[in-house]
Amino acid sequence: MKFGLFLLYIASILFSVLMAFIYRKHLESRKLLILLPFLFLVFIQETVLGILIMYNEGSRNSIVYNIYQPVTVVVFAFIYYRLPFMSSVKKLIVSIVILYLLIDLANHIFFQSILNTGTYMTLVRGFIITFLGLLFLARYFHLDNLSDEKYWRPLLWFTIGIAIFYPVVSISISFRKYLADGDYTFYGFKLYHLIPRVMSIFMYSCFSYAFYLCRKKS
């Protein structure tokens, strides 16, 4: 069952990559083209690390995720920064990202080795990405033009994915020790493993639908 969930998780990433590739000519106008190489790298990363973990060789995957986390913040911030109706909050986006990167760098220099996993910066990453999503939603629903709303609707689904994924996963991370110690399960799956996997499948499905919507010109 665990392997089946892993395959479903990997399949959801691969499907989003394929959708991004199929509609790649339409992604740039919605400022989403950067997600094509990003998701392809995520697919390779998660496939390799998942296989290594299954063979008990994933003890050094912390360095990969410690690099992946700030990259995720930069990629998502870059998408929102380029949106024309986000001009009033561009300086705020840049300031948040720079501050986060400085804190992350200081954390690995003075407090936590890049070879070790910590929950603090993971939670900070989730908070920042969720905040960026909320900024987008505030500006999107402030649009007065119906055609503009339809045109940028793919970004709405992209944001729905991350704005639900990161808060839920952050909560599960906060209670990870409690869930692990209590050995809470659901149909044989440990909850602290199941929640991130299920929410990831949901998020990548939202990405795929967003890419599909990009095919429409208005």
Helices and strands in order:
Blueprint: H1 2-22, H2 24-27, H3 35-54, H4 62-81, H5 90-111, H6 119-140, H7 146-151, H8 153-174, H9 176-182, E1 185-186, E2 189-190, H10 191-213
Antiparallel strand pairs: 1-2
Helix pairs in contact: 1-3, 1-10, 4-5, 4-6, 5-6, 6-8, 8-10
Features:
single chain, about 220 residues, mainly alpha, two-stranded antiparallel sheet, 10 helices
Mean pLDDT: 87
Gyration radius (Cα, Å) is: 18 Å
The SS-based structural class is mainly alpha
Tally the helices.
Answer: 10
Q: Into which percent range does the helicity of residues fall?
A: over 70%
**Biggest sheet architecture:** 2 strands, antiparallel
Report the strand count: 2
Q: What does the model show?
A:
The protein has 10 helices and 2 strands. It has about 220 residues and is an all-alpha fold. The model has no long low-confidence stretch (mean pLDDT about 85). It has one domain (about 1-215). Helix 5 packs antiparallel against helix 6 (about 120-140). About 25% of the residues are buried. A two-stranded antiparallel sheet has the order 1-2.
Short description:
The chain has 218 residues and is an all-alpha fold.
